[in-house]
Design a protein that fits this description.
The chain has 11 helices and 36 strands. The chain is of the alpha/beta class. It folds into 4 domains: 112 residues, 3-layer Sandwich (Rieske Iron-sulfur Protein), CATH 2.102.10.10; 177 residues, FAD/NAD(P)-binding domain; 114 residues, FAD/NAD(P)-binding domain (3-Layer(bba) Sandwich), CATH 3.50.50.60; 75 residues, FAD/NAD-linked reductase, C-terminal dimerisation domain (Enolase-like, domain 1). Helix 3 packs parallel to helix 9.
Length: 598
């Protein structure tokens, strides 16, 4: 695959903008895998597998008794470019008509269960309305993130002007399909000292890299190491649902890693990387040789440097243990959150029902100001104030005061004193790359690892991905950027794996992120750094709006609340390589988005 955008194709997006969403409340908390059984049976395309490597997968259409077949509609019921949810037995199927052909797929996004019928159909794929994951309508395969699993694809036939769908009962129930993967055929002989692929960091980038290697038929040893004591988990959920337990957050169960021979070393800290001898050394002295290395160490939260910073009950949130402890201590007590960015505001929102009081301290004059602009920030601030959150803006913490070692008061530079039993600090993060300083692997002045579009560092065979990298953003003129978001980490992990296998893939995904507060979601796509104007359509006070961020004549990002699937539509337009001009969004005429305009 060469450049991302050869020739911009005419973009057709024929779906009405669906406004409020009934499923909204359940959205952010229905975990990827919470309570849903997973089957590691795939019917995707497999490449260069040895016969004995295949998992014993049941045939996708086992026996007649396990299958359902029924007429779901008349051929004329759907126009080209339309999607419909249809009933099949006790389940539902997403029926899509594209270029005169019908396709039938799983109807829920495997990430958090969004109804895909409310998403966006464009260029042979459907994009989730909630978080932007994309699925190929011909295969059901996941093509853009977040999430790990693909959709089931069902058989369709047309007889006497009727559309029939045939599906296995199991696939209808599961709503997710894990792609076919190779197994490891060179297991470690009692933790031998060498591995083919070593992945440092087990967040989204590390896990997706390991899974992609196996999906592409790679059957050598893969070792994934993490500072955490847990297997890979859904970290963005920590600040949105602070009392979630590690097992509810797990992205894959233990058996998955065993089945596919992905070895995970927990509580394993790499202290040095020797690129000349292709070897890493761990804190406990264990040495491991590698032939390919992925660095995905993520970042570490910044801490306060003021007087009294060592008092008890002051937290940053990095692990489930941190989050659980904050909830336990905050119940019925006074809580102060320092920093009104995504993490701080999500924590503040979550604690309003648990704590006696919640106060937020922030240097800027409105929350999210740099990211979402003054007006959107103010509207969100009002929502928080209506939920009893008190703001102390344009100030910072000068001292933390304790009583018997435990936090009692937070003193602000404005000389205000705020009562506090618990303090959560969310003032940003720095890349966790200290261990690379003497390695010869290039770091920039801020400690980020610069990579090219193939996620390669300056050292051959060493790749990097996730929150700790800067990379060229294709649709912003290859500007080197750091985008520390969940979806981007997934995409980078996949590209790194493809290039370890010499597939010459390039990163060209459109950034997509979301936040959830008080049961409401804000979605965002693009890269808005340096925006010079914000054009708002809809009603900010009602929190039912879309905001377009522009720089000069071009739309560079979009945010919305209660306006689905507009953010996914804009992401599709940007992904197709078409620029969106400021004048197109100023008029309030959205026809250009529904394929009717120029």
């Amino acid at each position: 695959m060469g450049g991302c955008f050869s020739k911009p194709k005419p973009v057709e997006l024929k779906i009405e903008v669906v406004l409020p969403e009934k499923e909204r409340g359940k959205e952010e908390l229905s975990a990827g895998g919470k309570g849903s059984p997973r089957a590691y049976q795939g019917n995707g395309t497999a490449r260069h597998f040895h016969a004995e490597e295949r998992l014993p997968a049941p045939h996708p259409y086992p026996g007649a008794q396990d299958c359902l077949e029924a007429a779901v509609c008349h051929v004329k019921d759907l126009e080209n470019g339309q999607m419909r949810e249809v009933e099949l037995g006790w389940g539902k199927v997403l029926l899509v008509k594209d270029n005169g052909e019908f396709h039938a797929l799983g109807h829920k996004c495997p990430h958090y269960g969004a109804p895909l019928v409310k998403g966006v159909l464009s260029r042979g794929r459907v994009r989730c309305p909630w978080h932007g994951a994309c699925f190929n309508i011909s295969t059901g395969d996941l093509e853009d993130f977040p999430g790990l699993d693909s959709l089931h694809k069902f058989q369709v036939k047309i007889e006497k002007e009727k559309v029939y769908v045939r599906a296995s009962k199991q696939a209808l129930q599961l709503q997710r399909r894990t792609k076919m993967m190779a197994k490891c055929i060179s297991p470690s002989a009692g933790h031998s000292g060498s591995t083919n692929v070593l992945i440092v960091g087990a967040g989204a980038a590390g896990l997706v890299c390991a899974e992609t290697l196996r999906q592409e038929g790679f059957s050598d040893r893969i070792v994934l190491c993490t500072l955490d004591r847990h297997l890979p988990y859904d970290r963005p959920k920590l600040s949105k649902s602070l009392d979630a337990q590690p097992e509810q957050l797990a992205l894959r169960p233990k058996e998955f890693f065993r089945a596919y021979g992905i070895e995970v070393l927990t509580e394993a800290q790499v202290v040095t990387v020797d690129v000349r001898n292709k070897k890493v050394v761990f804190k406990d002295g264990f040495k491991l040789e590698y032939s390919k290395l992925l660095l995905a160490p993520g970042s570490s939260p910044k801490t306060l440097s003021c007087k009294g910073k060592e008092v008890e009950n002051v937290f940053t949130i990095r692990t489930p243990e941190d989050a659980n402890r904050v909830v336990r201590l905050a119940r019925g007590r006074n809580t102060v959150v320092v920093g009104a960015g995504f993490l701080g505001m999500e924590v503040a929102a979550y604690l309003t029902e648990k704590a006696h009081s919640v106060s937020v301290v922030e240097l800027e004059e409105t929350p999210f100001r740099r990211f979402l602009g003054e007006r959107v920030g103010r509207a969100l601030m009002k929502m928080f104030e209506n939920n009893r959150v008190k703001f102390y803006m344009q100030t910072e913490v000068s001292e933390l005061r304790a009583q018997e070692g435990k936090l009692k008061e937070v003193v602000l530079k404005s000389s205000k004193v705020v009562r506090a039993d618990v303090c959560v600090v969310g003032i940003g993060a720095v890349p966790s790359t200290g261990f690379l300083r003497q390695s010869g692997i290039g770091l920039d002045s801020r400690g980020f690892i610069p990579v090219n579009k193939m996620m390669q560092t300056n050292v051959p065979g060493v790749f990097a991905a996730g929150d700790a990298v800067t990379f060229p953003l294709a649709w912003r003129n290859n500007r080197k950027v750091n985008i520390p978001h969940w979806q981007m980490a997934h995409a980078q992990g996949r590209v790194a794996a493809q290039n370890m296998l010499a597939q010459e893939a390039e990163i060209c995904t459109v950034p997509y992120l979301w936040t959830a507060m008080f049961g409401k979601s804000l979605r965002y796509a693009g890269y808005g750094e340096g925006f010079d104007d914000v054009i708002i359509q809809g009603d900010l006070e009602e929190l039912k709006f879309v905001a377009f961020y522009t720089k000069g004549d071009e739309v560079i990002a979009v945010a919305s609340m209660n306006y689905d699937p507009i953010v996914s539509k804009v992401a599709e337009v940007l992904a197709s390589g078409r620029a969106i001009r400021k004048r197109e969004v100023e008029t309030g005429d959205m026809s250009w988005l529904t394929g009717k305009g120029s």
